[in-house]
Amino acid sequence: MTDTFIDPATESIAQQHQDKYNDPRAKVTARGILLAVAVILLAILGAAGSIYARRTRLQKTTSFWGQDTITALQLGERIQMFAISGRQFPAVELTGTPGLGHLRRLLLDERNYDWSAVSKSGIEQRCDQQDSYCIQLRLTDPSARRFEAKQITIDLNDGWVGQSEGSSCVQIVARKRNALAKFLEQLITVQQRRLDDR
User: Fold this and answer.
1) Which of 5, 61, 102, 162 could bond 169 through an S-S bridge, CB–CB 3.0 to 4.6 Å?
2) From residue 2, how far is each of 5, 16 by CA, in Å?
3) Nearest Cα to Cα of residue 76 among 4, 127, 124, 144
């Protein structure tokens, strides 16, 4: 028995790999097609569920803050922090600060507030107390001018927030309250170190 020599240059690619194209073990069955469709549907449902769970819920916060303040929190080009009561520090420029997106989301998402703890007295009354520690966030949009300047006051001791000179305030949930206070304290400390290092 003699082997026939086939010149690879003249043989087509399909002929060289004929065994791979006609593998008898590979079969497409209805079960395989149904399994592939089920995996695709599961992936679509998982993606939709993830988007729904992670989206920022704004219904209650919009009714509390008002649409202009929500726009300011979402799109504010410049954010500054000022001392109102308690610890005094020079103004802190927050624009471009790492973690600022988390601060915006915390103030926007309605799940971060204890809606059973809404006070009809303004935040300014809480900041006038003897042992209060309050800061103010000033949000502006100097380039696009999509909204007027907005001021949000935060009581770092007890986690109350409200619009400066507003008529009501709400308390942030306990698990977010401590994180917010630590984040803002860290920004104040970093700013003071920068000023001291000049």
Assistant:
1) 162
2) 9, 20
3) 144
Q: What pTM was estimated for this model as a whole? A: 0.72
Per-residue pLDDT band for 107 (boundaries 50, 70, 90) equals very high
Per the rule left: phi > 0, alpha: psi between -120 and 50, beta: everything else, 132 is beta
The H or E element spanning position 85 is strand 78-85
Q: Which residue has the tokens 């007890």?
A: 158
Mean pLDDT of 151-156: 94
Helices (H) and strands (E) in the chain, counts: 8, 7
Give residue 181's Cα distance to chain centre: 17
Cα separation values, 48 from 18, 55, 160, 170, Å: 43, 11, 34, 31
Distance CA 41, CA 134 (A): 50
- Token look-up 């703890």 returns 117
8 A C-beta contact, residue 155 and residue 123:
yes
| Positive/negative CA dihedral, 118, 120, 126, 129 | negative
